[in-house]
Amino acid sequence: MRKQRAVACPSPDIDAAAEEVLRKGSAVDAAIAAVFAAAAISPGVLLGPVQLLLGGGGAGLLALDGRVRQ
């Protein structure tokens, strides 16, 4: 059975980087690649917040919030 995977990004350049990683790695790998590709285009992205929504077989749903809190 083939795994179905998809990427949605605001820029074609970011989308291409994430899609390339998604062919060989996991969705988390693709999300990290997308953040680094976005940071290459706009350096302010690197220190910005990242939110991930994850869901999968037997793991339930998980939301990760990467905002800095003091």
Key traits:
70 residues, alpha+beta, two-stranded antiparallel ribbon, flat
Walk me through the structure:
The protein is α+β, with helices and mostly antiparallel strands and 70 residues long. 40% of the residues lie in helices and 17% in strands. It contains two helices and two strands, in the order ααββ. It has helices spanning 12-24, 27-41; strands at 51-56, 60-65. The protein has a two-stranded antiparallel ribbon. Helix 1 (12-24) packs antiparallel against helix 2 (27-41). The N and C termini lie far apart (46 Å).
Structure, briefly:
Helix content is 40%, strand content 17%. With 70 residues, it is of the alpha+beta class. The longest helix has 15 residues, at 27-41.
Secondary-structure-based class equals: alpha+beta
The secondary-structure element order is HHEE
- Any idea what the shape is? flat
User: Count of DSSP helices?
Assistant: 2
